Sequence to fold (164 residues):
Amino acid sequence: MFAFASDAEIVNTNSNSGAVMKKDGYQFKQFGNKYFVRVDKDMEIVSVLKEICKENGIAAGEITGLGAIKSVTFGFFNPETKQYTEKTFNEYMEITSLVGNVSQKDDEVYLHLHMNASGKDYKTIGGHLVNAVVSATSEIIISSEKGSVGRKFSEEIGLNLFDF
Ligand code: FE
Fold:
């Protein structure tokens, strides 16, 4: 038999943690500079993250996550044409990796996210994340930093590059 600690024995010593913020379709709690986010079924991940960053004044940070989705649109940037092509996949998939950063452009929150996801054949697809809809749940951590990172469009590259 395994022994488990009871809930009462688990003590959160992080005095820097805030209240649980419950919204329509998602909730989050802040621990120091980190926001632990739960995104619920049928919610679109990118718009939820954007809303949290906007409402909490996060203008520089890092994002990691996982979860289960039922649809995703990936972008692929062609450096020669400087254009994105997009493709949508409507199937149940596991998010095997969600990574990205938070910055700011023209005083608006600017998220740059990439995602890998695997379907029932366990094969992974991925790319620049345009949007993704949750099928069960998604667990995401936003690590915020003080200050802000800007963006500026580069004619040469065709993308909005970090602008410090
Ligand atoms: Fe990208």
Q: What stands out?
A: Strands lie at 17-23, 26-31, 34-40, 61-78, 83-89, 93-105, 108-118, 124-144, 150-154, 159-163. Residues 112, 114, 128 surround fe (iii) ion (CB under 6 Å). The mean pLDDT is 93.
